[in-house]
Design goal:
This protein is mainly alpha-helical. The chain has eleven helices and three strands; from the N terminus they run H-H-E-H-H-H-H-E-E-H-H-H-H-H. The chain has helices at about 10-20, 25-30, 35-55, 55-70, 75-90, 95-115, 130-145, 155-165, 175-190, 195-210, 215-220, and strands at about 30, 125, 130. Strands 1-2-3 form a three-stranded mixed beta sheet.
Length: about 220
Protein backbone atom coordinates (compact mmCIF):
# COMPACT_ATOMS: atom_id res chain seq x y z
CA UNK A 1 0.00 0.00 0.00
CA UNK A 2 1.39 3.41 -0.97
CA UNK A 3 1.68 6.15 1.61
CA UNK A 4 2.51 9.82 1.30
CA UNK A 5 5.37 11.38 3.25
CA UNK A 6 2.91 13.53 5.21
CA UNK A 7 0.98 10.55 6.64
CA UNK A 8 3.25 8.16 8.59
CA UNK A 9 2.27 4.51 8.66
CA UNK A 10 1.29 2.81 11.91
CA UNK A 11 4.44 0.68 11.83
CA UNK A 12 6.66 3.70 11.24
CA UNK A 13 5.05 5.61 14.10
CA UNK A 14 5.43 2.75 16.55
CA UNK A 15 9.01 2.12 15.54
CA UNK A 16 9.89 5.77 15.95
CA UNK A 17 8.14 5.92 19.30
CA UNK A 18 10.16 2.94 20.49
CA UNK A 19 13.29 4.84 19.55
CA UNK A 20 12.09 7.80 21.59
CA UNK A 21 11.94 10.20 18.67
CA UNK A 22 8.34 10.08 17.43
CA UNK A 23 6.32 11.63 20.25
CA UNK A 24 5.39 14.74 18.21
CA UNK A 25 4.20 12.55 15.34
CA UNK A 26 2.16 10.34 17.65
CA UNK A 27 0.13 13.32 18.76
CA UNK A 28 -0.05 15.05 15.40
CA UNK A 29 -1.75 12.21 13.54
CA UNK A 30 -4.65 9.95 14.56
CA UNK A 31 -3.54 6.33 14.66
CA UNK A 32 -6.13 3.81 13.53
CA UNK A 33 -6.33 0.59 15.52
CA UNK A 34 -4.53 -2.38 13.98
CA UNK A 35 -7.39 -4.85 14.42
CA UNK A 36 -9.51 -4.97 11.23
CA UNK A 37 -12.56 -2.76 11.60
CA UNK A 38 -14.87 -5.56 10.48
CA UNK A 39 -13.63 -7.85 13.25
CA UNK A 40 -14.04 -5.15 15.86
CA UNK A 41 -17.53 -4.30 14.64
CA UNK A 42 -18.59 -7.95 14.71
CA UNK A 43 -17.33 -8.36 18.28
CA UNK A 44 -18.97 -5.11 19.32
CA UNK A 45 -22.34 -6.14 17.88
CA UNK A 46 -22.09 -9.43 19.76
CA UNK A 47 -21.19 -7.55 22.96
CA UNK A 48 -24.15 -5.19 22.59
CA UNK A 49 -26.50 -8.08 21.92
CA UNK A 50 -25.16 -9.88 24.98
CA UNK A 51 -25.54 -6.81 27.20
CA UNK A 52 -29.10 -6.20 26.00
CA UNK A 53 -30.33 -9.78 26.19
CA UNK A 54 -28.35 -11.30 29.03
CA UNK A 55 -28.25 -14.49 26.95
CA UNK A 56 -25.52 -16.83 28.18
CA UNK A 57 -24.54 -17.95 24.68
CA UNK A 58 -24.27 -14.35 23.43
CA UNK A 59 -22.25 -13.34 26.49
CA UNK A 60 -19.86 -16.25 26.07
CA UNK A 61 -19.42 -15.47 22.38
CA UNK A 62 -18.69 -11.81 23.11
CA UNK A 63 -16.09 -12.76 25.71
CA UNK A 64 -14.43 -15.18 23.31
CA UNK A 65 -14.39 -12.73 20.39
CA UNK A 66 -12.94 -9.84 22.36
CA UNK A 67 -10.56 -12.21 24.13
CA UNK A 68 -9.11 -13.25 20.77
CA UNK A 69 -8.86 -9.65 19.57
CA UNK A 70 -7.18 -8.55 22.81
CA UNK A 71 -4.68 -11.40 22.53
CA UNK A 72 -3.87 -10.40 18.95
CA UNK A 73 -3.23 -6.77 19.95
CA UNK A 74 -2.07 -6.83 23.59
CA UNK A 75 -1.19 -3.15 23.50
CA UNK A 76 -4.74 -2.02 22.74
CA UNK A 77 -6.59 -1.12 25.97
CA UNK A 78 -10.01 -0.87 24.29
CA UNK A 79 -9.99 -4.52 23.26
CA UNK A 80 -8.82 -5.61 26.70
CA UNK A 81 -11.48 -3.50 28.41
CA UNK A 82 -14.25 -5.04 26.31
CA UNK A 83 -12.84 -8.50 26.94
CA UNK A 84 -12.94 -7.79 30.66
CA UNK A 85 -16.46 -6.38 30.53
CA UNK A 86 -17.75 -9.44 28.65
CA UNK A 87 -15.91 -11.78 31.00
CA UNK A 88 -17.46 -10.03 34.01
CA UNK A 89 -20.90 -10.48 32.42
CA UNK A 90 -20.30 -14.21 32.40
CA UNK A 91 -20.83 -14.13 36.16
CA UNK A 92 -24.55 -13.82 35.40
CA UNK A 93 -24.58 -17.04 33.37
CA UNK A 94 -23.80 -19.53 36.14
CA UNK A 95 -25.43 -20.55 39.41
CA UNK A 96 -22.16 -21.69 40.97
CA UNK A 97 -20.91 -19.03 43.45
CA UNK A 98 -17.24 -19.79 42.90
CA UNK A 99 -17.62 -19.48 39.13
CA UNK A 100 -19.54 -16.23 39.50
CA UNK A 101 -16.70 -14.82 41.58
CA UNK A 102 -14.03 -16.14 39.23
CA UNK A 103 -15.65 -14.57 36.16
CA UNK A 104 -16.15 -11.24 37.94
CA UNK A 105 -12.63 -11.12 39.33
CA UNK A 106 -11.07 -12.08 35.99
CA UNK A 107 -13.09 -9.49 34.12
CA UNK A 108 -12.33 -6.72 36.57
CA UNK A 109 -8.63 -7.59 36.52
CA UNK A 110 -8.59 -7.22 32.73
CA UNK A 111 -10.30 -3.84 32.96
CA UNK A 112 -7.89 -2.67 35.66
CA UNK A 113 -5.00 -3.68 33.39
CA UNK A 114 -6.53 -1.81 30.46
CA UNK A 115 -6.88 1.35 32.56
CA UNK A 116 -3.31 1.04 33.80
CA UNK A 117 -2.10 0.91 30.20
CA UNK A 118 -3.56 4.30 29.30
CA UNK A 119 -1.22 7.16 28.56
CA UNK A 120 -1.17 10.15 26.22
CA UNK A 121 -0.55 7.94 23.18
CA UNK A 122 -4.05 6.53 23.50
CA UNK A 123 -5.57 9.92 22.76
CA UNK A 124 -4.41 9.29 19.18
CA UNK A 125 -5.37 5.60 18.90
CA UNK A 126 -8.83 5.41 17.35
CA UNK A 127 -11.56 2.80 17.14
CA UNK A 128 -14.47 3.99 14.97
CA UNK A 129 -12.99 7.50 15.35
CA UNK A 130 -13.32 7.31 19.16
CA UNK A 131 -10.05 7.85 21.08
CA UNK A 132 -8.97 4.76 23.00
CA UNK A 133 -8.43 6.91 26.08
CA UNK A 134 -12.15 7.75 26.12
CA UNK A 135 -13.61 4.38 25.14
CA UNK A 136 -11.50 2.41 27.62
CA UNK A 137 -12.61 4.64 30.48
CA UNK A 138 -16.23 4.48 29.35
CA UNK A 139 -16.27 0.67 29.15
CA UNK A 140 -14.71 0.53 32.59
CA UNK A 141 -17.18 3.03 34.05
CA UNK A 142 -20.15 1.24 32.51
CA UNK A 143 -18.98 -2.09 33.95
CA UNK A 144 -18.06 -0.78 37.39
CA UNK A 145 -21.37 1.02 37.83
CA UNK A 146 -23.24 -2.22 37.16
CA UNK A 147 -21.22 -4.43 39.51
CA UNK A 148 -22.79 -5.57 42.82
CA UNK A 149 -21.90 -3.42 45.81
CA UNK A 150 -19.69 -6.16 47.27
CA UNK A 151 -17.05 -5.37 44.63
CA UNK A 152 -16.84 -1.71 45.74
CA UNK A 153 -16.40 -0.40 42.19
CA UNK A 154 -19.19 2.17 42.14
CA UNK A 155 -17.11 5.17 43.33
CA UNK A 156 -14.43 4.54 40.73
CA UNK A 157 -17.08 4.07 38.07
CA UNK A 158 -18.50 7.49 38.90
CA UNK A 159 -15.04 9.06 38.69
CA UNK A 160 -14.29 7.41 35.36
CA UNK A 161 -17.59 8.53 33.87
CA UNK A 162 -16.83 12.09 34.95
CA UNK A 163 -13.34 11.81 33.44
CA UNK A 164 -14.88 10.91 30.09
CA UNK A 165 -17.38 13.75 30.24
CA UNK A 166 -14.69 16.27 31.18
CA UNK A 167 -11.99 14.99 28.82
CA UNK A 168 -10.74 17.59 26.29
CA UNK A 169 -11.37 15.17 23.42
CA UNK A 170 -14.95 14.34 24.38
CA UNK A 171 -16.53 17.31 22.58
CA UNK A 172 -14.99 16.23 19.27
CA UNK A 173 -15.79 12.52 19.64
CA UNK A 174 -18.46 11.07 17.30
CA UNK A 175 -22.00 12.01 18.31
CA UNK A 176 -23.24 8.42 18.80
CA UNK A 177 -20.46 7.83 21.33
CA UNK A 178 -21.15 11.08 23.17
CA UNK A 179 -24.85 10.27 23.33
CA UNK A 180 -24.07 6.82 24.75
CA UNK A 181 -22.04 8.48 27.50
CA UNK A 182 -24.83 11.00 28.18
CA UNK A 183 -27.34 8.15 28.43
CA UNK A 184 -25.16 6.41 31.04
CA UNK A 185 -24.83 9.68 32.94
CA UNK A 186 -28.62 10.00 32.91
CA UNK A 187 -29.06 6.42 34.14
CA UNK A 188 -26.62 7.01 36.96
CA UNK A 189 -28.24 10.29 37.97
CA UNK A 190 -31.63 8.57 38.10
CA UNK A 191 -30.22 5.74 40.24
CA UNK A 192 -28.68 8.33 42.56
CA UNK A 193 -32.11 9.97 42.89
CA UNK A 194 -31.12 13.09 41.01
CA UNK A 195 -33.95 13.24 38.48
CA UNK A 196 -33.24 16.80 37.43
CA UNK A 197 -29.70 15.90 36.42
CA UNK A 198 -30.99 12.82 34.63
CA UNK A 199 -33.47 15.01 32.76
CA UNK A 200 -30.70 17.40 31.68
CA UNK A 201 -28.59 14.59 30.22
CA UNK A 202 -31.55 13.09 28.40
CA UNK A 203 -32.55 16.47 27.03
CA UNK A 204 -29.03 16.89 25.71
CA UNK A 205 -29.34 13.60 23.83
CA UNK A 206 -32.70 14.64 22.35
CA UNK A 207 -31.44 18.08 21.34
CA UNK A 208 -28.35 16.60 19.69
CA UNK A 209 -30.39 14.53 17.24
CA UNK A 210 -28.26 11.48 18.06
CA UNK A 211 -29.45 7.99 17.10
CA UNK A 212 -30.43 7.52 20.76
CA UNK A 213 -32.77 10.57 20.71
CA UNK A 214 -36.00 8.56 20.58
CA UNK A 215 -34.86 6.34 23.42
CA UNK A 216 -33.91 9.40 25.47
CA UNK A 217 -37.30 10.99 24.78
CA UNK A 218 -39.03 7.84 26.01
CA UNK A 219 -36.99 7.86 29.20
CA UNK A 220 -37.78 11.52 29.75
CA UNK A 221 -41.47 10.69 29.81
CA UNK A 222 -40.85 8.03 32.43
CA UNK A 223 -38.89 10.27 34.82
CA UNK A 224 -40.56 11.31 38.03
CA UNK A 225 -41.33 15.06 38.14
Amino acid sequence: MNTTPSMPTRRALLAAAAAGSAAPLMFAFPLQAAVPAADHEAALRQFQQAAASGNATAIGSAAEQFGRLAASEPGDPVLLAYSGAATAMRATTTMLPWRKLAFADDGLAQIDKALAMLDARHDALLHRQVPASLETRFVAANTFLRMPAMFNRHPRGVRLLDEVLQHPLFASAPLPFRATVWMLAADQAAKDRRPEHARQWLQRVVASGAPQAAQAQSRLQGLNP
